[in-house]
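Course assignment 3, question 2. Fill in each field.
Student: A.L.
Task: Predict the tertiary structure for the chain below.
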Amino acid sequence: MFDNRGVVYVGAGKVDIQKIGYPKMHDPRGKKIEHAVILKVISTNICGSDQHMVRGRTTAQVGLVLGHEITGEVIEKGRDVQNLEIGDLVSVPFNVACGRCRSCKEQNTGVCLTVNPARAGGAYGYVDMGDWVGGQSEFVMVPYADFNLLKLPERDRAMEKILDLTCLSDILPTGYHGAVTAGVKPGSTVYVAGAGPVGLAAAASARLLGAAVVIVGDINPARIAHAKAQGFEVVDLSKETPLHEQIADILKEPEVDCAIDAVGFEARGHGHTGVQQEAPAIVLNSLMQVTRVSGQIGIPGLYVTEDPGAVDLAAKNGSLSIRFGLGWAKSHSFHTGQAPVMKYNRQLMQAIMWGRLDIAKIVGVEVISLDDAPRGYSEFDLGVPKKFVIDPHKSFS
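Answer field:
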């Protein structure tokens, strides 16, 4: 038995490193399960979705152990686990999924019907997602291990690529899902709203899928500069020039074939609308404006059913002032929701292992210790162009 420490939400704007219980093979209701494994966490990442909770923008409870982006080594397994061995290095999809329900059998693992009594879909260390303990820790339990876990081949080679492979648990499949559901194809012109890690993962995915031009927009100068340095076209949404005019300067036309919302509900207004004011529907409305008729819009950016810190009463309940009539008139297709990570992670692992996708460089991975996680949260909240990866056991840093 080992001691265990983790990153714990202790109040709006605050996280702390605390001693937490060593994981047991029990579900959140206390029932013993034999389909689980215990992982020694090799890497675990700070995600923008975590930041929503830490900012106090959700109903997350104080004491929640955070972390849904996990890569680990199997150190214990239940008697029902058949396809994994002690010592295997695995990537953990952030979706907790049973593999048995209708949703899972249809590869919609983001909305598993059995792992969360409150609603469809489960996740580690996340509000309203089934009370599964998070993995920003030294050790973590993963249920339905044979179904959920992606074994990484050739351990030594995988460790050489660990900074890229750590992105398989969430942001890379999420960005890829955004690109796929936006209909990106060879020769497409693509606009990605948001130059954070998911936005850059979506842009990289669009490029992998053969897009002719990928444009990334943001209001943060450092993130815009980083996106440009990765070879993407960029637009600066803090400028007075409207988005469609900036796109026209690049493409010689004001619309794109495909658009991806990698911002979500904490969006802020564009320069010509009042740059510092929060405007939770502005990204969706702007994407409808700049997407061609019969185009598709992928929405991997997070939207919530309850937002205590919203700017108005409607938004507090997840109701936004969306110009749905514009989208209807232009015959747009919208795709929302959590990415079903297992639908994509094996293929994306292959792209990483064979040098097709340098995702760590693209999203700006920076490795930190578990004790340094509060600094990582603080800097990420300020908008630095980085993806903070925690190395709890100093396995590779």
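Instructor remarks: The chain has a mean pLDDT of 95. DSSP finds 15 helices and 17 strands in the chain.
Grade: pending
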